[in-house]
User: Which sequence fits this backbone?
């Protein structure tokens, strides 16, 4: 058996091995670097796009904060100030009153205030809101969609990887510049073509 | 030895990272289907007594367009306003006409001369049946949000949800009178329009009917703009109109019965001229479960109902069973 080629084979093996080491090393370094960049970056914060949200309830359960850093916010300029509010009242309520049995919100976080016949104003008590999106679903289906969720930055820890973003079925979460940290609904509602 | 240790550690870390990535990916996917304890559930209202469904769907066909605006029937032709296009179909669903127009439509109607009247958000445009522009009115102003129009003889009625008013105009666009302003003297309660849905139509006897969606009521007006009569019932149950503002769309049949179409919980129903529920034309379960848009509706002389389903981008035809 000839051994003429042995040093060459050894060289190639070493080359491959060194290459693999280098590739693995670089991968680990880049992953570590990316994590470090994400954790130290203070220019971006987490926010959710209310037009993508499908009201799955995860914002209430998955946030690392208790209660969730996601809260319902109200775009008053979109609200119809409805008496029969789909976000405030249970479907087919016994009466259009503030009685607990008629309220949709599991924590009674929405305050209903009479303005003038037949208009009512709805305000969110953020301390009570758990970000469950039940009212958002009711308002989006039957009203103007003025109730919607937002990550509240006075509560959000801006985790490296937002625990809700990981599981959001609508992929509604994104990083936004800290200088404009909210994606608030505005203008007139989307029309019948969505 | 050192080199072997380093190799081993690198491979271990690489495998560990891969395992975490795979676990995360699979975990996320699986987690996407977990039940929602806070679900807004209206399933009980989606179910209806099948005996109450008095129409059946006999045909549906797609409308190829980016945006759908409204539907009307004229001479057995189905006319669809689709953004900046007018499209006509014959009764079998075959497209027979398509023309681009300058005006971005919100809704349409067809008059006795077969002219096609298009409402944009702020103004009205009149086209002949070939889609040639005949007239374009001045704007009703920046606050206006036109949601419906009807032509009866030389009267044109325009519903403006933004200003919560109905304009009675002549065919040139001159305002003859404003209808629906709150007035205790003539019994007009005033429009409550929480969202841009406010339909109107003229009945067989020439009387104007306007849907006061926030009050869930149909209001009928005399020629002088005074209130003649009204009816309506709010509620998620099948007899009522659900949500904050319904019915979003309606049409009046030759026998003066009403076809109503609701948003939120899409369903199409038939009411008698005094507001009694006659039956269901299309139950909620005949629409996409994730859709909350009210189909626009039109009727023909044979009591057939034509629905423009925005979610499915279809014209759907329903006939009495
Ligand atoms: S997880 Fe996503 S879809 Fe679910 S409620 Fe939050 S933003 Fe909406
Ligand atoms: S229903 Fe849920 S999201 Fe809405 S206010 Fe109540 S707790 Fe907040
Ligand atoms: S970044 Fe963290 S604290 Fe903020 S919403 Fe997501 S999980 Fe909650």
Assistant:
């Amino acid at each position: 058996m000839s051994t003429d080629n042995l040093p060459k084979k050894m060289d190639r093996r070493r080359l491959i091995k060194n290459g693999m080491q280098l590739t693995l090393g670089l991968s680990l370094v880049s992953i570590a670097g990316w994590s470090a960049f994400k954790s130290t970056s203070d220019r971006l914060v987490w926010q959710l796009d209310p037009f993508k949200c499908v009201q799955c309830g995860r914002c209430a359960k998955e946030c690392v904060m208790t209660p969730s850093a996601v809260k319902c916010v109200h775009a008053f300029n979109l609200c119809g100030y409805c008496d029969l509010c789909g976000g405030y009242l249970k479907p087919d309520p016994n009466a259009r009153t503030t009685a607990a049995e008629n309220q949709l919100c599991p924590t009674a976080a929405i305050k209903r205030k009479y303005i003038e016949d037949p208009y009512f104003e709805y305000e969110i008590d953020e301390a009570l809101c758990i970000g469950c999106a039940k009212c958002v679903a009711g308002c989006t289906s039957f009203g103007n969609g003025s109730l919607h969720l937002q990550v509240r930055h006075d509560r959000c820890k801006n985790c490296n990887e937002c625990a809700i973003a990981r599981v959001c079925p609508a992929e509604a979460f994104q990083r936004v510049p800290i200088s404009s940290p909210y994606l608030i609904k505005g203008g007139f509602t989307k029309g019948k073509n969505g | 030895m050192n080199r072997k240790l380093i190799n081993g550690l690198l491979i271990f870390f690489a495998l560990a990272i891969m395992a975490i990535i795979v676990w995360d990916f699979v975990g996320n996917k699986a987690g996407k289907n977990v039940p929602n304890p806070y679900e807004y559930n209206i399933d009980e209202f989606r179910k209806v007594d099948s005996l109450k469904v008095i129409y059946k769907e006999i045909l549906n066909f797609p409308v190829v367009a980016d945006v759908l605006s409204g539907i009307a029937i004229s001479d057995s032709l189905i006319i669809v306003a689709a953004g900046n296009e007018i499209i006509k179909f014959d009764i079998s669903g075959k497209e027979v006409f398509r023309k681009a127009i300058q005006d971005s439509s919100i809704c349409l109607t067809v008059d006795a001369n077969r002219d096609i009247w298009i409402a944009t958000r702020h103004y009205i445009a009149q086209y002949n049946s070939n889609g040639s522009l005949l007239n374009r009115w001045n704007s009703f102003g920046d606050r206006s949000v036109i949601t419906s129009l009807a032509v009866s003889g030389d009267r044109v009625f325009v519903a403006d949800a933004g200003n919560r008013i109905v304009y009675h105009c002549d065919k040139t666009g001159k305002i003859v009178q404003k209808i629906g302003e709150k007035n205790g003297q003539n019994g007009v309660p005033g429009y409550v329009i929480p969202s841009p849905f406010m339909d109107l139509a003229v009945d067989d006897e020439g009387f104007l009917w306007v849907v006061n969606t926030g009050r869930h009521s149909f209001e009928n007006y005399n020629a002088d703009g005074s209130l003649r009569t009204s009816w309506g019932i709010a509620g998620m149950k099948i007899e009522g109109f659900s949500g904050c503002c319904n019915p979003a769309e309606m049409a009046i049949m030759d026998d003066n019965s009403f076809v109503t179409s609701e948003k939120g919980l899409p369903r199409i129903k038939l009411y008698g001229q005094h507001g009694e529920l006659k039956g269901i034309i299309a139950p909620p379960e005949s629409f996409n479960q994730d859709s909350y848009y009210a189909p626009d509706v039109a009727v023909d002389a044979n009591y057939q109902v034509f629905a423009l389903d925005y979610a499915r981008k279809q014209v759907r035809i329903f006939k009495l069973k």
User: Anything to note?
Assistant: Chain A has two domains: 3-38, 44-189. The first strand of chain A starts at residue 44 and ends at 48. Chain A touches chain B through 46 residues (CB under 8 Å).
